[in-house]
Prior knowledge:
The protein is of the alpha/beta class. The protein has helices at about 5-15, 55-75, 105-115, 200-210, 235-240, 245-255, 260-280, 280-295, and strands spanning about 15-25, 35-45, 80-85, 120-140, 145-160, 165-185, 220-230. It is built from 8 helices and 7 strands. Helix 2 (about 55-75) runs parallel beside helix 4 (about 200-210), helix 5 runs antiparallel to helix 6 (about 245-255) and helix 7 packs antiparallel against helix 8. The longest helix is centred in the first third of the chain and has 23 residues, at about 55-75. It is flat and about 80 Å long. Residues about 1-15 have low confidence and may be disordered. Keywords: Signal.
Amino acid sequence: MRAIPALIIFFLLASCSTMVPVKKTSSPDIRLPLGKKEFLFISRFTADSLPFNNDNKVEVFRMGYNSFVRGLNAGYDSSRYYNITHLDSLVERYAATEPGPPISKEKVREACLEHNANYFLSLNAYNLYFDQEVEVVKQEDGTKDRTAYYDLVVESYITMYDKDGEQLHQFHDERRIEHDKRSVISGLLAVGPSMGKADKNAVIISTELGRGFIQKFYPRAYFEQRQFYHTKVFKSAYKAYLMEDWDTVEAELLKLSESSKPEIAGKAAHNLAVLYENIKRQDDMEYWREKARDLLGEKLF
């Protein structure tokens, strides 16, 4: 175990602030009008025509593709507003691992009219492949050890049309998973893993890819980190923050914000600004952020 330098230990002990998560929300990738919407879905992919001599590889593609479709359905089933209907005979299927030409406006328009649909999705291609990265580690004797790392990657190409046949969006999405690693003999190419034995991981990431498509139409939550005073008088508020007990955090910090000591009141004001940002009280956040600047000035952190 490496020894921790004394300076770092002193900093950790002396530091009076730490990082806490603040929940944020991003806009949907695709904004749709409010209300329930009907989607039609057509797949142009079939594993039957894949140009592979290895039957096991074809079967992995078939399993992965079927998992993608099941995931897509599961995603739409989880939605209160969006429904999906599959069409099987609108266009000829082929072994599409790369996108082909668009579907004609007339076919899209007729299908949407017949099924009273608002939008039309076309899966133009589905593909699985291995992505390789080689790590080189130089040893003390000057020799180099090489290790090849392989990710299994699934990708899909989907085009979205409106009910009039106008192309709205093209989506190229992928998921990956760590699959294998192998030692590389100097001067030789690493022998990669077999796609025909990658069925388990192909099913996992294909299901995730399909299920995640519906999220394009919803806001997404993510987290940013903010500094938060957590030592001494702020311990209770900090513990409550970690427990997401927002009422207790607020009560503790409001009391501290009334301190006769500007440093304590200023730090409490800063923590309150962090709290209100997290619980989406914008006006309160701005008020307490300004209060913290007034009280602490350059002493803020």
